Dipeptide transport ATP-binding protein DppD
Amino acid sequence: MSIIIRVEDLRAVYLVREGTIKAADGISLDILENSVTAIVGESASGKSTIIEAMTKTLPPNGRILSGRVLYKGKDLLTMREEELRKIRWKEIALVPQAAQQSLNPTMKVIEHFKDTVEAHGVRWSHSELIEKASEKLRMVRLNPEAVLNSYPLQLSGGMKQRVLIALALLLDPVVLILDEPTSALDVLTQAHIIQLLKELKKMLKITLIFVTHDIAVAAELADKVAVIYGGNLVEYNSTFQIFKNPLHPYTRGLINSIMAVNADMSKVKPIPGDPPSLLNPPSGCRFHPRCEYAMEICKKEKPKWIRLDGEAHVACHLYEEGRPLK
């Protein structure tokens, strides 16, 4: 598979009254065409910042300090707004976090589809709009006759999430980015959304990138997993290898903390300590205050981004020292 998006040394911050939040610090990864990539990490680790920086949709206090995001060889970060508008939604579509709340409660679903089309300069007749919207709603297992003339308050959380996925697919993008697509949903609805995304990926041969704090969700859906900690990318590998042989101590901690119905509770171990403040992150490796393998160098120097065998990448001094996890 070829690379459809290449992220190089992406750095983004938020300017707040207390100082500068260092939310994405030197992120580099390749997204393969027709693949599913999960960006995984604890809450407030910088996951959403990465995709918002990639798509230039950061809030007003967000700043991109450096880096490149190459899509089909062109840097999205240096494009003028009018150039980006030709790509957004038509080629790269984003379903943001807490998207269920982004539907206007005073507008019917069909009006949301109409607004999306008009905002991107697409000229469809009313009958074409109904036909296209109905097609996308059926793709996400919704009945267009019942949903198109409904207001958001008449829909369940899972239905609203599927409406937003249908809206994102309306102009047939080649890349679909979803920020926490299963958060705030009950377990059964989460399972339905995951299954739906699997079907859409297979049907449309689309590239999916999704953010989640739940590594078990990544296991269900992703081909590759990018593990984020404290605004840093600490591991990037195939999903199979991430679970078979986690390279970074943080990745191992995430996997060991997974709760399952049939789990041996004696083997379920939470990661000790708390995530770092991105306002005043620890020196060196940001995970070192919580890491049982921490060495003196971990407190002083940020580890290098190392490529190991195959697809494996890791940022950990253990590998620089020739002492991998066992």
Notes: The radius of gyration is 20 Å.
